[in-house]
Design brief:
The chain is mostly beta strands. It is built from two helices and 18 strands.
């Protein structure tokens, strides 16, 4: 959730499994917000294809080519005005055609996001992005330009009731490069969320079929949860100061709360150290007094 200070996620997608076996997409992302106006993000994607057989001039199978593509992202976003944010992302791309030749490229994304609050429970979001602007990539067959894209979208976030929300979205996409494969595409969809836990989604994609773009619909469902374990120590006299205000917690959250836990731990250590030093000094005084009385 973007309302928390840090978070992350992982996605595994069997890509077109019914048509192409052993083709998968792995994606992971994380973000951190040092304050309310800034955020830093990291991302990784790995795409593996089933590939094709490699044969000699006589048709004998020599092996199978297994292309792989990877991308590493690092981004920075900042609120520049009320409701308006800007973002810049740098990307390193590595492509392995499976022939022993690998290509590398560097690309950049830039985007704007604007949120207009209509009421306490309704809002409109607008977004624009210029993506994949950068160098070409050469995997041994000559340099190829990255697919430059311009994207624009709008989303309406509506509260149907206290625990029910509906989001309606629409997006347009223009592919500018390579020049021989320029095309447009569009998407629209909806998401229903219940109690902040369950979600149902559906959408449809439009595309220029003359340029190879596909048209299809999709549906999905999701769950979001936060799991954890909490425990409280017995309050022995020497440890009462530590536990009274700072119960010991072990939390395994879906969204990271490491900074909050670290701050609590530091507070416990500082308060606990000073308290135990006081207890130790008092114990030494009692021992000295007992020795004098015996003497």
């Amino acid at each position: 959730s973007a309302e928390t200070r840090a978070g992350g996620g992982y996605t595994y997608l069997p890509w077109m499994r019914s048509l192409i076996p052993e083709t998968t997409l792995h994606a992971a992302a994380a973000y951190f917000k040092p304050n309310a106006k800034q955020a830093v993000s990291l991302g990784f994607r790995h795409f593996t294809q089933y590939g094709s057989e490699c044969t000699d001039d006589n048709g004998n199978v020599l092996g199978r080519l297994r292309p792989r593509d990877m991308a590493f992202d690092i981004g920075y976003s900042r609120t520049v005005a009320k409701g308006l944010s800007a973002a810049l992302t740098g990307r390193y791309v590595r492509s392995d055609a499976g022939t022993g030749h690998t290509g590398n490229a560097v690309a950049f994304d830039a985007g704007l996001f604007y949120r207009q609050t209509l009421s306490r429970s309704h809002a409109l979001n607008f977004g624009f992005q210029a993506a994949n602007f950068g160098s070409g990539i050469d995997c041994g067959g000559g340099g190829q330009p990255l697919p430059w894209r311009l994207k624009a979208g709008v989303a309406a976030d509506l509260a149907l009731a206290q625990a029910h929300r509906l989001t309606l979205t629409a997006e347009a996409d223009w592919r500018l490069r390579p020049a021989e494969s320029r095309a447009w595409s569009g998407r629209f969809g909806a998401e229903y969320r219940c109690c902040g836990i369950a979600a149902l989604r559906g959408g449809y994609r439009l595309g220029d079929r003359s340029a190879g773009e596909q048209r299809y619909g999709s549906v999905g469902a999701g769950l979001r949860w936060k799991c954890g374990l909490s425990a409280r120590r017995r309050e022995f006299p020497a440890a009462r100061h530590v536990d009274a205000d700072h119960p010991v917690q072990l939390v395994i959250p879906c969204v990271s709360e490491a900074n909050d836990l670290a701050a609590r731990a530091a507070s416990q250590n500082e308060n606990g150290s000073s308290h135990f030093e006081t207890v130790s000094r008092q114990a030494r005084k009692r021992r000295m007094l007992a020795v004098r009385q015996i003497a």
